Each structure stands twice: as structure tokens, then as C-alpha cells.
Amino acid sequence: MSSSATPHVAVIGLGSMGYGMATSLSRAGFVVTGCDVSADAVARFVADGGKGAKTPAEAARDADIVVSVVVNAAQTEAILFGKDGAAETLAKDAVFISSATMDPDIARRLAKQLEATGRHYLDAPISGGAQRAAQGELTILASGSVAAFAKARPALDAMAAKLYELGDAAGQGAAFKMINQLLAGVHIAAASEAIAFAAKQGLDIRKVYEVITASAGNSWMFENRMPHVLDGDYAPRSAVEIFVKDLGIIQDMARNARFPVPVSAAALQMFLMTAAAGMGRDDDASVARMYAQVTGTKLPGAK
Prior knowledge:
Layout: E1 8-12, H1 16-27, E2 31-35, H2 39-47, E3 51-53, H3 56-60, E4 65-68, H4 73-81, E5 95-98, H5 104-115, E6 120-123, E7 126-127, H6 129-134, E8 138-142, H7 146-159, E9 160-165, H8 172-200, H9 205-212, H10 220-230, H11 240-257, H12 262-279, H13 287-295
Parallel strand pairs: 1-2, 1-4, 2-3, 4-5, 5-6, 8-9
Antiparallel strand pairs: 7-8
């Protein structure tokens, strides 16, 4: 434990989700050190009253809890075991909370590798978006040892409105998250297809949105993402490339399990096509723009 009575937390990855999680932890009374490849993100966090670190090793040195909020498994592994990695300096009784979406097999491997050094690993993917991260109201899908949960719980309580405890070993949280991502990707692709098809029919798509959100065809993703299309605003809240990655992981898992996933395979192709058209870093509702481009359909904001 740190010498202070107040637990120290390091948040590695100060993107839209990580920044909100770090500020939620600060608000809850933790001493929080932020670390990011972007010096600007760290400087912003310091200006907001947090501490800053240049490397994961530096951030983890005084931390009881390390929260890793990066994009994928490769970045998570680099943060732990790469040059200036957190595993070099993490105290023996500290816990590493991994929030990246990844293949469950990789989560199990990273946990085994860290636990072999005497530290704790909590597999804890997140859902809810940047706004809920900033409000401390995320959904966290966690699995890990009893000791990992016990050590991580104060931070989890500060970051989450809903904490699901999904098993006593890493990998279960990751697997639950991948099922969520399968549905999320399919629903965004379907919503984008529907709104673009409605526009092609000459329908008032604002009225389409009103009708569908009050009807059985609605989905959370239709209701959440299609306003971006209505406003012609594709600033990335969640980027197309996220679903290229996550639906790709689904395909790998399914192939290994000899389990057919044709609907999510089709959705992956829609995201790949959108990325190939130059919109990979734009909002994932850009799938609708891809449909519009291919079919010569006019959507709001189109040049």
C-alpha cells in the first residue's frame, strides 16, 4: 500500500473514456496520476488537479490500483511488460485493472503472466461511452480473483453505476464484452443501412427517427447513433476502426470455436468498407455515409 491513507490510483490512457474515469476517481477522493502517450492529455489532467507521469512505470510506482484504458490487447501488454512498463514498478499487493476490449484468451495470458509476479489482474472491460465515464456511471464487466476484486473495489465503485462480477478468473469479462460488441456492431450497421435506405426512398429521415424510436424496430444503437446522421456530425464519439477491431476479434473467436457468425461477419464488412472509404477515424455512424456514397443517396451534411 502507499504510505498515505488515501489510495493512489494510476490511470494509463487519458482518451475520451480514460479521462472521464480519472476525473471520476479524483472526485471520489483518490490521489490520481494520469499517464498517456499524449503530453497534452496529461497536461490537461494536471491542470484539472491530478498528477502526471511520463511512463506507465512511473505512474505505477506509488499506485495501489492501476487502471489501464487503452485500445487493445497489444497496447495493454506494452503498458504492462514493455519498456518502462507498469509491471516493473507495481507493488506486490497492487491490482492492475484492464479495461481494453480483447480476445478472452489474451486476457487469460496477461493475467497469468502478471499473477506469476505476485500482483493482481482484474479483467474489466467497460461500456457506456465518454459521458457516463465522466459521470462515474459506467457498466463494468469484471472477472478475476477474490483478492483482485477486493483490492480494486473502491475504484470500481467510483467509476461504475453497474458492476457485474462475472467469474473468478480473467477472460470471462472479456468474453461478455465481446458478446456485447457483436450486438453493438450489428445494430449500428443495421441502423445505418435502414436510415440510408429510408433517405433513398425520399422519406423525411427525422420523421423516420421519430417513428422508429417509438416502434418495435428500435434499438439502443439506432436511438443513440442516428442523431449523428441527422445532424451530419461524424466527430468520433466511437470510431469506425473500433468495430473493425472488435468484430474482427469476434470472427477469430468464432473460427476457433467452429461457430458460424454470418450476421456479424456481414457487419464487419460494412465497417471495413467504411474504413476503406477513408472514414476509419470518424464516428461509427459513418457506415450510413458509406451506404449513401455507394448508392448516390443524399444525407444531411453531405457536400
